[in-house]
Design goal:
alpha/beta, 333 residues, Aspartate Aminotransferase, domain 1
Length: 333
């Protein structure tokens, strides 16, 4: 892969449709881990489209209440922060959890840093050799989680020498986990949140950086004005304030995540990990399973290192039945 090549991700439905000769509208897309039953926002007022986005329009207050800290910055999806953060440090040594969301290691390498990809069981022995440690909590795709006591210990070790602990919590609402972010963000701890997964609003491109004020000021200056579009700011406020929807969705995702795990076990594909929004199957037959499902118009996320498949949640009863039938057909061949 060239240094500045784009990485592949889930959700490449158009390419799959062309490859397999199946129309886009006929696919069941389980490749992204996005909530298939999203938050439905109210109608967006015309002013949100015609005026420049206004800071302090209520979004920051809604986010502060939801995330439990005012020390935050709205960004155009957490991907914007993933790409910017490496450019705010001089060349350093960055440890990145592997397997994990590949954009993190990619961004640090592209910014000229020395990157070491680490398994979870390698971190403790390497922490003193790192200036930055990047983790996902829960991890994508393995679903692995770290104890808060361990995260706080690693943060203290890194911060003592001016380092950073970055925790990407994109999937945290779909699990029983609690954010590592305190009410007042200390130097050296950076938490990334997103409306794309739990809320199912990936197209809105809204994320938040939770960090110390000094770093947030640097990021704000680097991003410039209007980093989040007006309509997206409007939608995000309603999503963050709707506690009833959040509670009901959290309960449903815990139930549906367990249901997906059972469906996979029944088909001889026990999951090695996951969270409320996906299950991760570690198998040498990953590519064959991915291809056999694609031939039936079901798109999953294939990983080659290690060989594995990530399954997102179906939404409707018909989609659950379709997946179950396809898995049993593959299992019986």
């Amino acid at each position: 892969m060239a240094e500045h090549a784009m990485l592949e991700h889930g959700g490449q439905l158009r390419a799959a449709a062309v490859r397999h000769g199946i129309a886009m509208e006929e696919w069941l897309d389980l490749s992204t881990g996005i909530n298939p039953i999203p938050f439905v926002p109210p109608q967006i007022p015309l002013a949100a489209w015609t005026r420049l986005p206004q800071e302090q329009d209520g979004l920051e207050d809604a986010a502060a209440r939801y995330y439990g800290t005012p020390d935050l910055l709205p960004v155009s999806g957490s991907q914007a922060a993933i790409q910017l953060l490496p450019r705010l440090r001089s060349r350093c040594r960055a440890g990145v959890l592997h397997p994990g969301y590949a954009e993190h290691a990619h961004a640090w390498r592209n910014a000229g840093h020395e990157v070491k990809e680490l398994r979870a069981d390698e971190i403790a022995a390497q922490i003193n050799n790192m200036d930055v440690l990047v983790l996902m909590q829960p991890n994508n795709p393995t679903g692995e989680v770290f104890a808060h006591t361990q995260l706080h210990e690693w943060h203290a070790q890194l911060a003592a020498r001016g380092g950073w602990l970055i925790v990407d919590e994109a999937f945290i609402e779909a699990s029983a986990q609690i954010s590592v972010a305190p009410s007042q963000m200390p130097p050296g701890l950076i938490v990334l949140r997103s409306l794309g997964k739990f809320f199912g609003l990936a197209g809105a491109r809204v994320g938040f950086v939770l960090a110390h004020d000094e770093l947030l000021a640097r990021m704000r200056a680097a991003l410039g004005p209007w980093s989040v579009a007006g309509p997206s700011r409007h939608v995000a406020q309603f999503a963050l304030r709707d506690r009833a929807w959040q509670a009901a969705t959290h309960a449903r995702l815990l139930h549906d995540g367990a249901r997906l795990g059972q469906l996979l076990r029944d088909a001889g594909l026990p999951s090695a990990g996951g969270c409320g929004l996906f299950r991760w199957v570690l198998t040498e037959q990953a590519e064959a399973i991915h291809q056999q499902l694609a031939q039936r118009g079901i798109l999953t996320r294939l990983f080659t290192q290690p060989r594995s498949v990530r399954f997102g949640l179906p939404g409707s009863a018909a989609e659950w039945n379709r997946l179950g039938t396809a898995l049993q057909q593959i299992h019986s061949t």
